[in-house]
Amino acid sequence: MSNPGRVIIEVPLSWARQDIEQRLAFNGGRHTRVNTVLSAILGLLLAAAFYAALLPFRESSFAEMFLTRPFVPATICFLTGWSTAILFIKSRKLKLQRRALNYAIVPQDHDFVLSSSTVDQVTDRIHTTVDDPKHFVLFNRIMIALSNLRNLGRVGDVDEILRSQATHDESSMETSYAVVSVFVWAIPVLGFIGTVLGLSTAIGEFGSVLESSGDLSQIKGALQGVTSGLSTAFQTTLQALVAALGIQLSLAFLKKNEEEFLDDCSEYCVRHIVNRLRLMIYEAQDD
Fold first, then answer.
1. Which tens digits make up the pLDDT trace of 19-57?
2. How far apart are CA 200 and CA 259, in angstroms?
3. For the chain, what is the mean pLDDT?
């Protein structure tokens, strides 16, 4: 039974309720990291939807690019869909992380001094703002610094902890793009593999015709088939390069936004945490 006298406070920032992966019943990746299983499933669904959309136009030249020798184009579409899903989920998670910058967790009173005796006031404000601080880049960074404040004697030590955590967050951000970066490399390679396979098939068929017939008209017809096969073979490279270009541009744009967010987090920590600690030092010197 629930306790009727219990008061449940709904925080404005809830990772459990607002994180896109949590809402889809998957374990959400830490900060802006993406659940691999969820993104792979979404990538598969995107690729399937793309091929389903091609079926009514199977006679068109565009559809034939994907339906002729479909293994390599299908793999390219799957990796493209997977990358798109990762970048989309990361963009939604980054948007949630950015909302943390809108909340002032340190009292705005000019006379407020952040010290070991006032740490609890700040942590209480954090817990009334967010359900789980460790899942937010900004609040996780601040909580790590505040948890060590009682054992620190200099402002520079707190600043050093914040800087160290900022470096860790930047490194974590870089590794979170590793899967997409691998796909950007792998997709053009798949395109080249498809081209080589198409070339091998076309040349092999032409060689068979030369061995079996000396009639010039038959050779001419076979040569037309070879040139058609060459055209189809090079289409896989075109598909791969276009897909890789689109993913790379999206990745660069999103990564730039995330780098700017981390810079904003560092600025927030200096303005709201480090500067308040300096007030404490100055006040102690005056005494």
1. 999 999 898 888 999 999 999 999 999 999 999 999 888
2. 45
3. 83
How buried is 123 (Cβ within 10 angstroms: 0-12 exposed, 13-18 middle, 19+ buried)? middle
Per-residue confidence (pLDDT) for residue 227, from 0 to 100: 64
When pLDDT is averaged across residues 105-118 and rounded to a whole number, the result is 80
- The answer to whether residues 269 and 141 touch, using CB atoms and an 8 Å cutoff, is yes
Amino acid at 246: G
Residues shown for the chain? 287
The C-alpha atoms of residue 9 and residue 250 are separated, in whole angstroms, by 38
Residues 6+ apart with CB under 8 A from 58: 64, 67
Strand partners of residue 13 = 130
